[in-house]
């Protein structure tokens, strides 16, 4: 007759180092999101306004090199803010909420506050371009897109376990 061994083989626990802190990534991503988002929105608004003025003045298909460059630079900066989500979702989330969603909701719900926001800026292409973004809902939509980018980055990071 044979008996089974009553003891299992001892396996020492495997030590896993705690994951590195993400605090630094969150802080830098958040700061960059807060700084780069309004710059990107401003460049997009100013460049778009310049293009709009050219088309409305002459009703032709003239081009404004500076307006195109400003618009492209703003779009690239906004892409950079969205890409911060790969580092930490704090950047796109903060930038989207602070510079897109909140001003967009305020301007649509209380237009007089939207005008007060615009009066805080120097008058010119930037404020005129932003007024079109602000009251058309484009700023609100851009803010929500950045928030969505941040949320998607968070979900993706959790799925891969980082």
TrEMBL record:
Q: Which UniProt keywords apply?
A: Membrane, Transmembrane, Transmembrane helix
* Source organism, top-level taxon: Bacteria
Segments crossing the lipid bilayer: 27-46, 66-86, 133-156
What is this protein called in UniProt? Uncharacterized protein
């Amino acid at each position: 007759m044979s008996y089974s061994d009553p003891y299992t083989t001892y396996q020492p626990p495997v030590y896993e180092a705690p994951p590195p802190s993400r605090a630094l990534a969150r802080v830098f991503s958040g700061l960059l999101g807060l700084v780069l988002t309004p710059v990107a929105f401003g460049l997009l608004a100013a460049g778009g306004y310049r293009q709009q003025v050219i088309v409305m003045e002459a009703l032709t298909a003239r081009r404004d090199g500076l307006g195109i460059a400003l618009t492209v630079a703003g779009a690239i900066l906004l892409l950079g803010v969205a890409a911060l989500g790969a580092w930490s979702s704090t950047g796109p989330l903060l930038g989207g909420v602070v510079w897109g969603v909140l001003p967009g909701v305020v301007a649509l719900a209380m237009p007089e506050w939207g005008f007060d926001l615009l009066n805080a800026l120097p008058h010119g292409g930037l404020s005129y371009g932003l007024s079109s973004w602000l009251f058309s809902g484009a700023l609100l939509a851009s803010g929500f897109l950045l928030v969505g980018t941040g949320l998607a980055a968070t979900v993706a990071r959790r799925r891969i376990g980082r």
